[in-house]
Amino acid sequence: MRFIPHQYQAYATQRILDTPYLGLFLEMGLGKTVSTLTAIDQLLNDYFDAERVLVIAPLRVADDTWAREIHKWDHLTHLRISKVLGSADQRRRALKADADIWIINRENVEWLVGEYGSKWPFDTVVIDELSSFKNHQSKRFKALRRVRPMIKRLIGLTGTPAPNSLMDLWAPVYLLDQGDRLGKTITGYRDRYFLPGERSGHVVYNWKQKKESEERVYEAIGDIAVSMKAEDWLELPERIDRNVPVRLTGKAAELYKKLEKELLIEYADADVVAQTAAVLSNKLLQMASGAVYDEDRGVKLIHDAKLDALEDLIEAAQGKPVMVFYNFQHSLSRIQARFPQAQILRKGKDGNEDIRAWNNDGIPLLLLHPKSAGHGLNLQESSCRTVVWFDQIWSLEEDQQANARVHRQGVRHNIVVIRLVAEGTMDEEAVEALGRKAAGQEALMQAVKARIERVRG
Fold first, then answer.
1. Element (H or E) spanning 287, and its range?
2. Does residue 215 share a domain with residue 243?
3. Looking at the whole model, is its pTM more than 0.90?
4. Smallest Cα–Cα separation from 111: which of 134, 94, 92, 130?
5. Helix residue ranges, H only, 19-101
6. Of 233, 266, 285, at which residue does a domain stop?
7. How many domains does the chain have?
8. φ, ψ for residue 104 (rounded to 5)?
9. Are residues 253 and 214 in the same domain?
10. Is the Cβ–Cβ distance between 213 and 194 less than 8 Å?
11. Tens digit of pLDDT for each residue in 162-186?
């Protein structure tokens, strides 16, 4: 296919060529991959300013998306790629292959750095989904930080640079400029832009942004970041968001309230710290979806109200494919038991076949976990018009990325995103937080505390 770049794609490509390290903060569907590959091709073959290019990506994206983009566009088909995936022996063989671009999944970054040490060979590195390096304590961040001085060019791609708070920006930006703009340490960054919030002893559980911090941070990194919103550039078909209330009645409502009270009353006189709040929220969201794990990892069934609601939505789709996001394994099992036609995306080459089948309307009901389907999957070519969130989540990044699998450039019809919200449950708090764009740890903790107060009152 001939590539005729949109204006913003040409601009993004030129910025990569002009800037040794750049954050391409383009929203989902704006063609970050093809813009980056176009720049890489020119750096390799026109400017001779790159020799060995490494792409770090989520596993499924590393295995499928980059190769598919190269084969899709006429001007890129000459590029040779080597997938550094599989066992250690397979990865080592792939590293020795004659290629232009080597692609590795982010879980193996630490291994790759260990393989080469001070003999790091890649002068150009692309991090596909830069925000997945937001944890400054993670092994992948620490490993890449060690070899960063040996990298001549670094390109970071993401649609959500600070998915939950400005705190998420320090580590990704450090990988870009080695601390020149936001500081060499996370401690210095916190002191400059944040105030300590709740704490237990010397441990601070959350940090609050200082006034005007957001403006100051984005001003500081403006020269190494390209930020664009899809709505400013693409005339996408409409995305319609609907919350479908699910009522718990009779014994189901009584059992939910009983379990919620027993769970929360234990913490009524205790501080709800981050870890505890996350556990409580997780349990309450499970219960809202119809089941919960007990202490022995057995499943306690509570209700089928969401399964019934999902059945109605599938029927209303009138034979069109339906995509369903689940967050809990017992939700997956219960959906599969009710709907035998449902399929999940398999791993590796089988998963690539599943993607093709979905895009050709060969899968009537596709079940996806937001963590595994969050980045890089192109699922917009099917005739699916209905996306259903069976379980509710707190992560704004996962929510945005997951919905953008179908509502992105190339989709030809409106998409309806439906959230099944169990009335009077933690579902309502999570959906409200997403609506405020405040999803994250602080919203989660406040919601749990509010429910404790309700139960205690």
1. helix 274-289
2. no
3. no
4. 92
5. 32-45, 59-60, 66-72, 88-96
6. 233
7. 2
8. -130, 150
9. no
10. yes
11. 766 788 899 999 999 999 999 999 9
